Amino acid sequence: MNEPSPKLALQIQPERGIGWITLGSSLHGIITRLKASPQTYPSLDLSYAASRPITQPVILNLPYNGLRLRFDGPDQRLRLIEVLDFSLTSLVYKNTDLVRRSKNSDEANSEEVSPPSGPTFRHIYSRLFGPTYAGEYLSPEPGQATGTYVLSYPGLAFTFPIQHQSWSDRVDFVSILSSNATGPAISMAIFSGTSWTEARTNLYSKPPTYPRLSSLVGKPAETIADEVEEVRVLGAGRVELVRRSSPPFTIVLSETTPQDLVAELGPPDAIYRKHDRRISIHAAGKPSDRRLPSMSPALDPQIADTDHSSIQSYTEDSDIDGDVDPDRQDGSNDDCFYNYFHHGFDVLISSPASRSPPFPGDQGSEPPRWSSAQLVAAKIFLHGNIPGSFSFNRHRRSRWVIQTSSEGPGLSLTSEMPFYEISSSLKRTWRGTYKDEDEEKQMQRGMVLNRGWEQSPESSIELLGDLEESPTRGKADAENTPEALGGGTSNTELFGFPGMLFEVLKNDTVSCLTVF
């Protein structure tokens, strides 16, 4: 393992973050940047509830840096930053060190002789943050002699150990925290809120103030592509992207051009050239090739192809190319993927194809208008970024909603729902399109996809598969088993409905939704 580099001084920013680590940042963005500096951040430990990876919080520990980062499960955005060991990270607030270093007066060079402990209350109160309101005292567990006092400032809190016998409600907290009965702070938290007492009530549900990419903080909106907050699948090849500040942008498959994508979403993070036979069999083909829209990949005779390339992700191990020629007559050789890692999805650029049917009862939209020589957006892949999955941390998490009616009430199926609920609802929606019950059963068979023949590219991250104990949450009920993690042989299953293909993990979580 790489030896950690000397500590860098990180600026404390209450209600915002420390250094470059900003509240609201995506799990994907934080991990990507941490892994880019292995000398500074040599170890990453990821803890999560293996059976409920997108409904329970995800915790990222940096043991060599004394930091712990907590993310909400559904959106995977940073909600709480904790400093657990002040000796491992140098912190500064307005040019003043958070921890006063001990010096050896006998040494001519006045070097530090011992690692610093946490900051004292006197230093915090007098030199750094000033007066504040009374905090919260937590009595010790039975048999323990030391309680805990949480001192809050707006967006910032410190935890102090206090001898329980010295605590009294009749004595002001400044006197007690200044006495010998109180030791230096043992931890610090940065959050969004006026106090820790107020912030912890909606820590994981309050809308974040800052964007998912910390590099975007403070940049003019007109110079960057707006963040995609949610993807709405509307049927008939229509996908609406709901953005943070800009109006929604609708991708119409077989009609939206690569130029449209770049104008609205910015240039892709990467472009990969690859024709994927595993997915192309589920797309709408030429009208003369179509029968009842294929509900399940298990029915397609081409599934007999057992080439080992089937274990690769849809967009990896491909030739990188930055240009697509939309005027080329033979578009088959120009098929490529536009990878938007920071948006959470990929778009297949290919020749136009027949659009998938609208949801039953929905009128859908007009047929596409295109030239056979024109390259268009043919499919969109919405990635779930599920901890423990084969494709974890290649994209940030994309949240989606399937809306079965554009007018009036209809189903709203979300990316946080277990697949059995999504499948049951879609089966009822499409039931009238089958000729009999036997065809319905045949069309709903799943196809197994083995992703375990090669090592995950993110295997250097320690996946613990459990949630740690915390003051505000009990220990989660996690199942640390290969099945729950999607491990073992790393098999997933593919289930198809008209215009949609779901990749499902063994914990019934949707890892990827392909819309075509």
Helix content class: 10-25%
**pLDDT averaged over residues:** 79
Shape: elongated
Spatially, the strands of the biggest sheet line up as: 10-11-12-13-7-6-5-4-25
The number of domains: 2
Per DSSP, the total helix count is 9
Largest sheet: 9 strands, mixed
N/C terminus separation: 44 Å
What structural class results from the helix and strand content? alpha+beta
Number of strands: 28
Measured by DSSP, the beta-strand proportion falls in 25-35%
Rg computed from alpha carbons, rounded to a whole number of angstroms: 27 Å
Report the uncertain regions. 105-114, 278-332, 454-461, 465-489
How would you summarize the topology of this molecule?
Layout: E1 9-13, E2 17-18, E3 21-22, H1 27-35, E4 45-47, E5 58-62, E6 67-71, E7 78-83, E8 90-93, E9 96-97, H2 121-128, E10 136-138, E11 146-153, E12 156-163, H3 173-178, E13 187-190, H4 196-199, E14 228-235, E15 238-243, E16 249-252, H5 258-265, E17 270-273, H6 277-280, E18 319-320, E19 336-340, E20 345-350, E21 376-383, E22 400-403, E23 412-414, H7 419-430, H8 437-443, E24 447-450, E25 462-463, H9 482-485, E26 491-497, E27 500-504, E28 510-515
Parallel strand pairs: 1-8, 4-25, 14-22
Antiparallel strand pairs: 1-2, 2-3, 4-5, 5-6, 6-7, 7-13, 8-9, 10-11, 11-12, 12-13, 14-15, 15-16, 17-18, 17-19, 19-20, 20-21, 21-28, 22-23, 24-26, 26-27, 27-28
